[in-house]
Amino acid sequence: MQLIGSLSQMRELEHPHGSKLGFVPTMGFLHEGHLSLVDQAKQENDITVVSIFVNPAQFGPNEDLQRYPRDLERDLTLLKERGVDYVFFPDSDMIYPPGYRTWVEVEELSSVLCGASRPGHFRGVCTIVLKLINIVKPHRMYMGEKDFQQLSILRKMAEDLNLETLIIGCPIIREDDGLAKSSRNVYLDTDQRQRAVSIYQSMQDAARQVSAGQRNTELIIKSVWERLLSEGAKPDYVKIIDSKDLSDVDQVDQGSRIMIAAWFGKTRLIDNMPLNA
């Protein structure tokens, strides 16, 4: 495994003719969700690159940039065990040098759901991902479906900007009790961790309602919201959307998906699940 800390070194790498390069962008503090993306990238490509960069541009002024968990040594050990070929870990001044002024934004999709709660977040996400794609030049990039809005926005960016990189969404990896794996789970105390599983359980409740014939999204959302409140969560949003364009729907159909963001103490967690009628 080769460690690369400079943009020029990453750009100048030479690969065998015809080889396919798979890329997994991360902010580090890796868990099994990240590693599942690495595994799929290795299975489907000749060369695998993982980036580790805590992107300041996607954190708001009152968010957790400084306390975001970091453990580069542990991350490198995990990636070496997984057989990764290259780890790219630029510093912030390389990515955003003095005088940096250029940003990328996907309109409409970036202003709903998490975008409404975190203004500017997806501008930061799109900018760093486009920069990384331009530097790494992967054939395929792998991202988890836990961040379904992010995945949708980046696919739209790739389509609109004629990028050649194929963005592949991979299944959510969960703890044994259903909580989606996230680097931010480390912030939860014991009580919050026990209650956080209510996000997954409330989505299961919604899926059972749909299976029983309920199609009215307002009624489903109301029941989920009440379930979260009863577990001590502070819901940010509960939405049922069209998976194609993230728009709200009144009736559940084949393309519907439930999207949840909720606070447990100072920790904001997100999750989602298809609700296929």
Keywords:
Pantoate--beta-alanine Ligase, Chain: A,domain 2, 2 domains, 6-stranded parallel beta sheet, globular
Walk me through this protein's architecture.
- The chain is an alpha/beta fold and 277 residues long.
- The chain has two domains: 2-170, Rossmann fold, CATH 3.40.50.620; 183-271, Pantoate--beta-alanine Ligase, Chain: A,domain 2 (2-Layer Sandwich).
- The chain is built from ten helices and nine strands.
- The protein has helices at residues 7-11, 32-44, 72-81, 92-95, 114-117, 121-136, 148-160, 190-196, 198-211, 217-230; strands spanning 2-4, 21-26, 47-52, 86-88, 140-144, 166-170, 234-242, 256-264, 267-274.
- It has a six-stranded parallel sheet with strand order 1-4-3-2-5-6, with helices on both faces.
- The longest helix has 16 residues, at 121-136.
Q: What is the fold's blueprint, element by element?
A:
Layout: E1 2-4, H1 7-11, E2 21-26, H2 32-44, E3 47-52, H3 72-81, E4 86-88, H4 92-95, H5 114-117, H6 121-136, E5 140-144, H7 148-160, E6 166-170, H8 190-196, H9 198-211, H10 217-230, E7 234-242, E8 256-264, E9 267-274
Parallel strand pairs: 1-4, 2-3, 2-5, 3-4, 5-6
Antiparallel strand pairs: 7-8, 8-9
Helix pairs in contact: 6-7, 9-10
